[in-house]
Write a structure and sequence with these properties.
The chain contains 10 helices and 8 strands. By secondary structure, it is α/β, with parallel strands linked by helices. The protein has a single domain, classed as TIM Barrel. Strands 7-6-5-4-3-2-1-8 form an 8-stranded parallel beta sheet. α1 runs parallel beside α10. This is Triosephosphate isomerase.
Length: 247
């Protein structure tokens, strides 16, 4: 059975005071038993603050990245084991900003997903094409290539403990959004690939300028199981409205 998720990605935003105010609003508005699971993926320095703020709430704590290495001489890296100590349950891997700005390859993303799974974390594996790739008719090939490298690394059982997030790179932070039909088309390609592996129950999220105005229509698509929310996750009223749309 697929689970509906609304996952907020704060990116490199926040401070102690604004975090506290945002989380207070979110926590008191998300019921302990909910038909949609809600999570926030926060910058590493705020994990302790957010862990405390989310205690005894239904909101799940997530991180935005994880090292592919368990431990050692990797200055600046944060391991899955470290994240677990702060109560992190899920972690983004392969976000388009990590791929494009920091050079993460499909192989590195796959190894990060494996490291998360090995530590008992749920990876949210992000895939998506650039505008140039879409216009060249390569969207399907790109998305399925990114997916297959992860699938080969973690196997069907690993996929069943993961979430997939389709985020068209051309619609992230640009104000552009894939039409519901475009989102569904890509999700259907991924669902078919999952079906072939016996992992069709994996939840798949759409990420790419999801807003209150378009959330319900996007979430109503057959293979869309919620959203990976960027800027709107920083505004309590918007984030909560999107979570309501997912319900």
């Amino acid at each position: 059975m697929r689970t509906t998720w609304v996952v907020g990605n704060w990116k490199m935003n926040g401070d102690l005071a604004s975090n506290a105010a945002l989380l207070e609003s979110v926590v008191k508005s998300i019921p302990l038993s909910d038909s949609a699971k809600v999570a926030v993926c926060v910058p590493f320095p705020y994990l302790a603050q957010v862990q405390s703020a989310l205690s005894n709430s239904a909101v799940v704590l997530g991180a935005q990245d994880v090292s592919q290495f368990e431990e050692g001489a990797y200055t600046g890296e944060v391991s899955a084991k470290m994240l677990k100590e702060f109560g992190v349950s899920l972690v983004l891997v392969g976000h388009s900003e990590r791929r494009s700005l920091f050079g993460e390859t499909d192989v590195v993303v796959a190894k990060k997903a494996k490291a998360a799974l090995d530590a008992g974390l749920m990876p949210v594996v992000c895939v998506g094409e650039t505008l140039a790739e879409r216009e060249a008719g390569q969207a399907q090939a790109v998305v399925l290539r990114q997916f297959s490298v992860v699938a080969n690394e973690v196997g069907a059982e690993g996929l069943k403990q993961s979430i997939l997030a389709y985020e068209p790179v051309w619609a992230i932070g640009t104000g552009k959004t894939a039409t519901p039909e475009q989102a569904q088309e890509v999700h259907s390609w991924l669902r078919e690939a999952l079906l072939e592996l016996g992992a069709e129950s994996v939840s798949m999220l759409y990420g790419g300028s999801v807003k209150v105005a378009n959330a319900a229509e996007i979430f109503s698509q057959a293979d869309v199981d919620g959203g990976l929310i960027g800027g709107a996750s920083l505004v309590a009223s918007e984030f909560l409205s999107i979570a309501e749309a997912a319900r």
